[in-house]
């Protein structure tokens, strides 16, 4: 069976590498990319077995097509797939994509793709600020979530095909409504990208940039790491998920205003310390794998959940407040 | 000659390790820490040669003292040093610290330390979210900036002593006024810390946290990495640099509002793309080491500076706008 990959950049080539390293029998990968250099490189590193000269060739040969192209390019790719299917009487093709916005993709799929193409949207929660097959890596999906957003035209067998693909990638499938997906991803991925661009712009456009840039060390570099994201991707993300991003920026601004008040409030140092302490502990739990509904109390202030941690925090807090008392007496 | 280290946590122990690995002849390091476990461990890993049972013992034996303690503890350490000097008639002691806020430290030094102690504030721009001598590493200062903030009571010989120390650490010394330092560090280090706490809190306190935490991948983890900072340090930073942090949070909120407008503005996609493109290129230059006043034009829009990059951006932009035209025609 042939699997087609349209777009052999970092994600597309990584999928191809994983398909090969996984050693699935009887599978060969045919690739297409408008960027001929990427396409040749993908073949050279064995991410794809053969090169298609057009999307038409992919459609005629593959039973499953994975589109890993820039988001705004997916619409035109759907149109090419549609034309090719009409011309060649192809049936039972299963198509998925890996775009980080889903509602717009599904809208395009529903309006452009013919009914005998089964589309299942998907989004692997893995990636890099790097681009191109040079940075591809068959192991990047290992243990990662891979969201599946079925459409009106996703029959069970098509969903199962994509589930098998996700399992072959070593990823954890997670079903989600496309609108929900876009809202959540705006919160933890798209908005943080633009928030980091804002952080870097603030420093860069400051009159003190010469000094700031000399002082900026590993902390600032990690706090601005996403600014290395290809601006073309950032542009496409905003074009296809603007309302959600806007909403999360507003919420982020409110949260910053809340924190600013907490920082200022010299009357209630205890509340401030409890807040940063609680966030710190929750963050360590999160890094430790406590995600989803497991392990979390309903309330942030659900102190019994902290056990030993709470004692530690209590001790730290008392110590802090004593020092401050000492300080104000002087 | 003995060098004293008060506070043998990650930074103090790293300084000790570097002093030893650097193989300075005739130097031995005497350490003190209220945390006896850290102190023993620092000796075990050879960060210090001997253990002092009190600050008094350090003052009586060392010619140079480096204070690497929690910021709010430094005041009490200055008071202990003062008492010890008065009791023992110690002269010509040179003292420095490594705290990430400087104005408050210098205020304490000026009011508490006697005139025959020469204090030179300093701040190595290196560190980790980890704490304790377990994570110490003699190479963390290699190539890092190390800010020196002299005080009213920093004679030339004391400044030269601290310069030698910084050079022995492999770091680049950078003279700065304490107030300037605090404002700059608030912008690129302290405010980003609280902005990341706000980002994590926003997700954590959301009703969708169960889903958000499952979807959060490497991007979110790097965007919230500083939340792992010891809350005790975050508290001390705010206590000693609150006004500057508040100011930078306000500016950050303004920048986010500016970006939100740019994202929304469907009339001027070109301005948005040029903005994220320019920030991206500047960021890559920054990562590539273009810091300080070198390599930077006075204006962000100083296009000739971009050379080949500008052509690339021009091409990307035209391509993008064509796609959007195509898109709106449908």
Q: Compute the gyration radius of chain A: what is it?
A: 24 Å
Mean pLDDT of chain A: 88
Spatial strand sequence of the major β-sheet of chain A: 3-2-1-4-5-6-7-8
Q: What is the CATH C-level name of the largest domain in chain A? A: Alpha Beta
> Poorly predicted ranges of chain A (pLDDT <50, ≥5 residues)?
295-309
CATH architecture of the largest domain in chain A: 3-Layer(aba) Sandwich
CATH H-level superfamily of the largest domain in chain A: NAD(P)-binding Rossmann-like Domain
Class by SSE composition of chain A:
alpha/beta
Name the chain pair with the biggest interface and residue counts per chain.
A-B, 108 and 108 residues
Strand coverage percent of chain A? 5-15%
Shape of chain A: elongated
- How many separate structural domains of chain A? 2
Q: Which quaternary structure do these chains form? A: homodimer
- Cα-to-Cα separation, first versus last residue of chain A: 79 Å
Order of helices and strands of chain A: EHEHEHEHEHEEHEHHHHHH
Total number of strands of chain A: 8
Notes on the structure:
2 copies of one chain form a homodimer. Chain A has helices at residues 10-21, 36-44, 55-61, 74-88, 103-112, 156-168, 178-204, 209-215, 218-223, 231-264, 269-287, 308-329; strands at residues 2-6, 28-32, 50-51, 64-67, 93-97, 117-124, 145-150, 172-175. By secondary structure, chain A is α/β, with parallel strands linked by helices. Chain A has 2 domains: 2-176, Rossmann fold; 182-329, 6-phosphogluconate dehydrogenase C-terminal like domain (6-phosphogluconate dehydrogenase C-terminal fold, Orthogonal Bundle). An 8-stranded mixed sheet of chain A has the order 3-2-1-4-5-6-7-8, with helices on both faces. The model of chain A is unreliable at 295-309 (pLDDT under 50). Chains A and B meet through helix 7, helix 8, helix 9, helix 10 and helix 11 of A and helix 7, helix 8, helix 9, helix 10 and helix 11 of B.
């Amino acid at each position: 069976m042939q699997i087609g990959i349209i777009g052999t950049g970092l994600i597309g080539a990584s999928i191809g590498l994983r398909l090969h390293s996984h050693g699935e029998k009887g599978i060969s990968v045919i690739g297409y990319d408008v960027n001929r250099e990427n396409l040749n490189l993908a073949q050279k590193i064995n991410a794809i077995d053969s090169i298609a000269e057009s999307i038409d060739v992919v459609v005629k040969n593959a039973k499953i097509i994975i589109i890993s192209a820039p988001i705004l390019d997916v619409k035109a790719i759907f149109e090419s797939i549609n034309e090719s299917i009409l011309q060649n009487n192809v049936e039972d093709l299963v198509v998925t994509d890996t775009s980080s916005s889903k509602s717009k993709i599904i809208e395009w799929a529903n309006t452009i793709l013919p009914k005998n193409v089964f589309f299942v949207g998907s989004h692997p929660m893995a990636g890099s600020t790097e681009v191109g097959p040079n940075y591809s890596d068959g192991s990047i999906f290992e243990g990662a979530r891979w969201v599946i957003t079925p459409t009106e035209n996703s029959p069970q067998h098509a969903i199962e095909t994509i589930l098998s693909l996700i399992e072959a990638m070593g990823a954890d499938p997670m079903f989600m409504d496309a609108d929900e997906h876009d809202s959540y991803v705006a919160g933890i991925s798209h908005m943080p990208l633009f928030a980091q661009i804002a952080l870097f712009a603030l420093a860069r456009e400051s009159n003190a940039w010469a000094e700031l840039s000399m002082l900026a060390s590993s902390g600032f570099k990690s706090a601005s790491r996403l600014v290395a994201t290809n601006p073309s991707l950032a542009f496409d993300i905003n074009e296809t998920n603007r309302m959600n991003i806007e909403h999360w920026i507003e919420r982020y601004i409110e949260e910053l205003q809340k924190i600013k008040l907490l920082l200022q409030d010299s009357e209630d140092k205890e509340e401030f310390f409890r807040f940063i302490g609680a966030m710190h502990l929750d963050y360590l739990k999160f890094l430790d794998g406590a995600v989803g509904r497991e392990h979390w109390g309903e309330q942030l202030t659900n102190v019994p959940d902290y056990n030993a941690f709470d004692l530690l925090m209590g001790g730290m807090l008392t110590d802090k407040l004593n020092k401050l008392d000492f300080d104000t007496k002087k």
